[in-house]
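in:
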């Protein structure tokens, strides 16, 4: 990230300054050592190596700044569309997942960047200092009954079916009073594909839950079935799903699904 690169650059500058000071002190006692090491002149001795690294870091920071500027312009352009805000939120969520944050995988990051257990989110009690764990935005169910999502799955391993169109339909929701942080769901997964000049379609029922704190939908296969799905919502319109092998939870495929309207 930019902050990490900037910190490295500051540290390198500090080391260079220290070496320069040491070189200047030694030059007063020995002019020959100054000629050998070159004091702080780039390209000579340890200080030269550090100066080269600083130049490299500066170049990388400049390129990163340019990339961020271009990305910012692209987001501004997209935001002019009707779905611009949703695309921007999706991009932000993807970056957060790639970079990570200070909270664990099963924790919720409050708006003030504190962390609380995802099991305490949307339970009627404000555990974040700013109350963001109980906000309307946080406690919006992304997988209500009747919601449908579709995408195209390409198997990467544990291949059970040919690459296929996939459709996930939420058939029911249930909330229990003693565990409101999760919405228990039932769903129907349908995969269809063409094979041997014939159209094939397979439908199976799954059940699981939606976790408010992680914005994650977990669908577990019934007995006798081998495939489940874990979907992380990037926004209200998109989710990244991982098809997993039941039991071992081996990742078999990744698919981006889009909400149907």
């Amino acid at each position: 990230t930019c902050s990490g690169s900037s910190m490295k650059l500051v540290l390198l500058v500090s080391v260079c300054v220290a070496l320069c000071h040491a070189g200047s002190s030694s030059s007063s006692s020995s002019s020959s050592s100054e000629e050998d090491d070159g004091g702080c002149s780039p390209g000579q001795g340890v200080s030269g190596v550090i100066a080269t690294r600083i130049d490299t870091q500066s170049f990388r920071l400049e390129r990163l700044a340019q990339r961020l500027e271009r990305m910012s312009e692209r987001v501004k352009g997209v935001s002019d569309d009707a779905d611009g805000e949703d695309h921007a939120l999706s991009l932000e969520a993807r970056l957060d997942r790639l970079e990570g944050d200070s909270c664990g995988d099963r924790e919720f990051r409050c708006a003030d960047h504190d962390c609380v257990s995802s099991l305490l989110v949307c339970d009627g009690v404000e555990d974040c200092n700013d109350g963001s764990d109980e906000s309307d935005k946080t406690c919006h169910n992304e997988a209500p009954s009747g919601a449908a999502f579709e995408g195209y799955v390409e198997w990467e391993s544990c291949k059970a079916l040919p690459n296929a169109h996939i459709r996930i339909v939420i058939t029911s929701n249930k909330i229990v009073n003693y565990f409101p942080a999760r919405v228990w769901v039932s769903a129907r997964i349908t995969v269809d594909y063409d094979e041997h000049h014939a159209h094939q379609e397979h439908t199976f029922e799954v059940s699981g839950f939606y976790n408010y704190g992680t914005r994650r939908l977990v669908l577990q296969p019934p007995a006798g079935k081998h495939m489940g799905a874990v979907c992380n919502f990037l926004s209200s319109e998109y989710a990244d799903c991982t098809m997993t092998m039941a039991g071992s939870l081996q990742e078999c495929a990744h698919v981006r699904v889009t909400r149907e309207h």
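note: The domain at 148-259 is CATH 2.40.128.620 (Lipocalin).
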